[in-house]
Amino acid sequence: MAKEAELTISDLAERSGMTVRTLRDYNERGLLPPPKMKGRTGFYGPEHLDRIRIVERLVERGITLNGVRGLLEAWDRGQDLADVLGVATADTPLPPQDATPDGLIAAAELADRFAAAPDGLARSVTAGLYEPVDPGTYRVTESALLEVFEQLLDAGVSTDRALDEVEQLRLDCDHIARQFTDIFVRTAVRQFQRSNRAEADAEAFAAQLDSVRARPAAITATVVGRFVERYVGRVVDREFPGMFSPGT
Description:
Pfam families: MerR_1. With 248 residues, the protein is mainly alpha-helical.
């Protein structure tokens, strides 16, 4: 396996779930930092993976690639990405406000919550926890990820480390989703493309489409749950032998 700090563009594509063509386009548009050159080969590292993650989140919010470049250029000049993303500045303060039942929270309050981590507010967006509604308000994006984040904080994990864990969890989930999508493309999509597009073909494709939307969550929950039970059981048996039986 290539070292994380010495990824070729092909390695970077595999690690990020992007295509080489897309990454080359990002390079040409100035969305990624220049690679470190060794001879004629460019090498990439964790900072490039982080940047790709940020670009994807901004694009998901409907920002064009040109707009993303402008945001990133402002960030690289030293402007806080939280400000770039629409958080009120000290010149336009907003009153603190806890999250409401519909998941809304004042930007100033959210900035305070993530102040302990470098670029904490921006990372809360790229990690999928929150997204801006308007310049003064954010809302919860993924309540499940937010619950994990808050549990980590309750366990004494630092904000910075908790964000790292949630960011990685989101990447892992994204990777699984891409795998299911790839299988769907190689099977259902290809079959329908080769079909006569008759009514029966369309019905079969629609059924497969419903399945790929519904089944991954159940499959993943079952398999991940089984692995967690196995690994947690080993840890408990090793650290506290004989004290806790399965299901305790």
